[in-house]
Amino acid sequence: MQARAAVMPQRHGRWSMETIEVAEPGPHEVLVRVVASGICQTDVHARDGFFPIPFPAVFGHEGAGVVVRVGSAVTSLAPGDHVVMANPSCGHCDDCRAGYETYCAHAPQLKQSGYRSDGRSLSFKHGDTPVYGSFFQQSSFAALTLAMERNTIRVPKDAPLDVLAAFPCGVNTGAGAVLNVLKPQPGDAYVAFGTGTVGFAGLLAAKLCGCDPIIAVDLFDDRLALARELGATHTVNAGHPDLVAEVKRLAGGRGARFCLEAAGAPEALRAAVEVLAPRGTVCLVGSARPGVEVSLEMKTVQQGRIVRGCTQGESHVQTFIPRLIELYREGKLPIGRLVRHYPHEAIDDAVADMLAGKTVKAVLRIAAT
Ligand SMILES: [Zn+2]
Ligand SMILES: [Zn+2]
User: Fold this and answer.
1) For residue 167, how far is its CA from the centre of ligand 2 (angstroms)?
2) Could you tell me the distance, in angstroms and rounded to a whole number, from the CA of residue 108 to the centre of ligand 1?
3) How many CA atoms lie within 13 A of 236 on its CB side?
4) Residue 326 counted as domain residue
5) 302-354 residue pLDDT tens
6) Which of 86, 201, 237, 340 could form a disulfide with 171 if both were Cys (CB 3.0 to 4.6 A apart)?
7) CA of 274 to the centre of ligand 1 (A)
8) What pLDDT does residue 288 have?
9) Parent domain of 238
């Protein structure tokens, strides 16, 4: 089968629209016609060569679409099902069996090797040229792609796929960090460092938990305005000359009970630790490139503060993502407010807007041909 795909020909390149050949699904795989795909910072890291996946390659790890065909061993999905494709995991390593699939021992191979779950076959080729894919076992920047049954989640047919495409990584990560990891109580002071998709999803989840105050910190004033609309009680520009003191003041003097670091910046993580009240917890979800380090004053950590991270919201995607979609349909997670749509071939513009802070969540609309 042939499909249009946004192919990255080389490290740091521009995307090129190509018609590629897509392989048949293996026993545990599904073939999905991708209708929409979110774009996330991790796709930009991949474009820039920070993962071992060879080039040319197809990225994308927030696909939403319709099942076309299923492999012989697939039991939970059928052609015609609407699905999103999420974080992959093996299901049988120690971490998967302990319920922590986001730390799957096989995650590097499943997410970033360029190969399907068998570790040797490819989803795509272009003429005789191999095209590496299976990015997060989905490569959703192709109009037709292969995913594992395990990371493909059935969604309601009357929910808009071009909004659900924000859920598999960004919304899952931010909402999961709050609902699965931090678990705040009503009245807890919460601070969001960074208001991209992950930061916003965390903020909306904190609002659902009854956090008060909810303080959003970002460099972009228009995002802070949106944060106020969507539930932040206070906002502070990250360029504030006395950022830590100001956030602590707004959090009630002693500091915040919980922070989410969704900026992926060392100065944001340091500030997030410093604005915590004693015994407060910061959860790091921001995506930094390899080698980025942070310095902390040791005395701040000694005050009972907890600095931890989490991957993909520490969620079980097959149950947590449907729960988030239900909250969205009840109007409690207004994710549509964050999304801006772009045509498939405008992927370079979408990424540029995302990096410039002009859009919170860029979602590609992907035509069938
Ligand atoms: Zn595993
Ligand atoms: Zn992502």
Assistant:
1) 10
2) 10
3) 25
4) no
5) 999 999 999 999 999 999 999 999 999 999 999 999 999 999 999 999 999 99
6) 201
7) 35
8) 86
9) 171-312
